[in-house]
């Protein structure tokens, strides 16, 4: 499969240099690739848009050991179509019983570059996650010492807490105290969805960053219920009120180094989404870059797109930006409606829409 096969024919139209932008190849700092047939089906779309990506470890069972991360990385590379170039950056799934020595070994051996904190029960395949953040101190102290970033799914897990308040509750009750206890720990607040958490990130910008998804830049919580229930727009953290979406757009397009790209592309087959109890996750891999660039264009910030997409994340993780480039063009391009997986499919975010920007 070639890159051209991944994108349906774009509508031709005249372009001028003002309608084209060339940036260093971007990286995606938050990706769910799953495994097996799903991995094979979705990976080409991410690899077509991004040079590298942080791979989430919430498989069943989760990726908790150096050996499991190494094996998963091999399966990803084996699933990559010939001629495509993509580097998976692996992560370790933290549990209450994670051994600090195992964390350090995987980091020293360059098998994983970060560890992922799922509060137990917060989201998909997180039941084996962390129940006691205080008890995690030995692991976090070790990570602080070796300079290994902690990636946080920042939502409170108490089912009594309103779902739209769970990021705020985690921020107040867990994140701010954690940052105070571990003052040298590098932290990424993943898929930020509230205005308030952006300010916590800014206040700690020397060592705290946030990723922002494409969908949280274009939908608010009302879109999930527009004309009926839209299961393919449901993810966690769930989209919030319009004022939060506007704050996310301002942060992403601000050029501030503490904000960078992380799609949280999270495929679930159609039947798992269109169900009486549908899974959380937006599959935005095939439409991510077109969506981000549209947002930057609408905000008059195309000159800051490269920083968000290709520079800030690499700098935070201490690795060089990519040398190769990608060009985006202002011309209508249709997004594939769904990606086939075995005898079913995964519905794509903004699928079947013609978007104003195309990946060349
Ligand atoms: O919506 C989500 N889906 N949020 C997450 O945190 C996990 C993800 C998934 O794995 O499906
Ligand atoms: Zn995720």
Describe the protein.
With 360 residues, the chain is α/β, with parallel strands linked by helices. It has one domain: TIM Barrel (Alpha-Beta Barrel), CATH 3.20.20.140. Helices cover 33% and strands 16% of the residues. The protein has helices at 3-6, 36-49, 66-79, 100-108, 137-146, 166-181, 195-203, 214-218, 242-252, 270-273, 288-298, 305-317; strands at 20-24, 28-31, 52-55, 87-93, 112-117, 150-152, 187-189, 208-212, 259-261, 325-329, 333-334, 338-341, 344-347, 354-355, 358-359. It has an eight-stranded parallel beta sheet with strand order 2-3-4-5-6-7-8-9. Strands 1-10-15 form a three-stranded antiparallel beta sheet, with helices on one face. The chain has a two-stranded antiparallel ribbon with strand order 11-14. Helix 4 runs parallel beside helix 5 (137-146). The radius of gyration is 19 Å and the shape is globular. Residues 7-16 have low confidence and may be disordered. (4S)-2,6-dioxohexahydropyrimidine-4-carboxylic acid (DOR) is lined by residues 32, 58, 123-124, 153, 235-236, 266, 280-281. Residues 32, 58, 123-124, 153, 235-236, 266, 280-281 line the site of (4S)-2,6-dioxohexahydropyrimidine-4-carboxylic acid (DOR).
Tags for this model:
single chain; 360 residues; alpha/beta; TIM Barrel; eight-stranded parallel beta sheet; three-stranded antiparallel beta sheet; 12 helices; 33% helix; globular; binds (4S)-2,6-dioxohexahydropyrimidine-4-carboxylic acid; binds zinc ion; hydrolase; metal-binding; zinc; Dihydroorotase_CS
């Amino acid at each position: 499969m070639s890159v051209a096969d991944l994108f349906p024919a774009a509508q031709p139209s005249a372009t001028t240099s003002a309608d084209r932008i060339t940036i260093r190849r971007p990286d995606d700092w938050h990706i769910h690739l799953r495994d097996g047939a799903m991995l094979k089906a979705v990976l080409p779309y991410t690899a077509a848009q991004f040079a590298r990506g942080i791979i989430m470890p919430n498989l069943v069972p989760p990726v908790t050991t150096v050996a499991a991360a190494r094996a998963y990385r091999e399966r990803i590379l084996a699933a990559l179509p010939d001629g495509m170039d993509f580097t998976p950056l692996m992560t370790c799934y933290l549990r209450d019983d994670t051994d600090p020595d195992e964390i350090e070994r995987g980091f020293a051996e360059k098998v994983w570059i970060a560890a992922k904190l799922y509060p137990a029960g917060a989201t998909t395949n997180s039941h084996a996650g962390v129940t006691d953040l205080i008890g995690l101190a030995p692991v976090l102290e070790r990570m602080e010492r070796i300079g290994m970033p902690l990636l946080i799914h920042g939502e409170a897990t108490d089912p009594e807490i309103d779902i739209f308040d769970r990021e705020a509750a985690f921020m107040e009750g867990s994140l701010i105290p954690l940052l105070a206890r571990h003052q040298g720990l590098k932290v990424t607040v993943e898929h930020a969805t509230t205005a308030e958490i952006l300010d916590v990130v800014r206040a700690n910008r020397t060592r705290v960053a946030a990723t922002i998804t494409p969908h949280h830049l274009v939908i608010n919580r009302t879109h999930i219920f527009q004309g009926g229930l839209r299961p393919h727009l449901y993810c966690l953290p769930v989209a919030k009120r319009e004022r939060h979406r506007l704050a996310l757009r301002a942060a992403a397009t601000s050029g501030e180094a503490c904000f960078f790209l992380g799609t949280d592309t999270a495929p679930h087959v159609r039947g798992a989404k269109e169900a009486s109890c549908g899974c959380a996750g937006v599959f935005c891999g095939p439409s991510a870059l077109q969506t981000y660039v549209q947002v930057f264009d609408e905000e008059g910030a195309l000159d800051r797109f490269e920083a968000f997409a290709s520079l800030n994340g690499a700098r935070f993780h201490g690795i060089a930006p990519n040398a190769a480039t990608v060009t985006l063009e202002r011309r209508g391009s249709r997004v594939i409606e769904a990606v086939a997986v075995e005898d079913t499919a995964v519905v794509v975010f903004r699928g079947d829409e013609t978007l104003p920007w195309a990946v060349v």
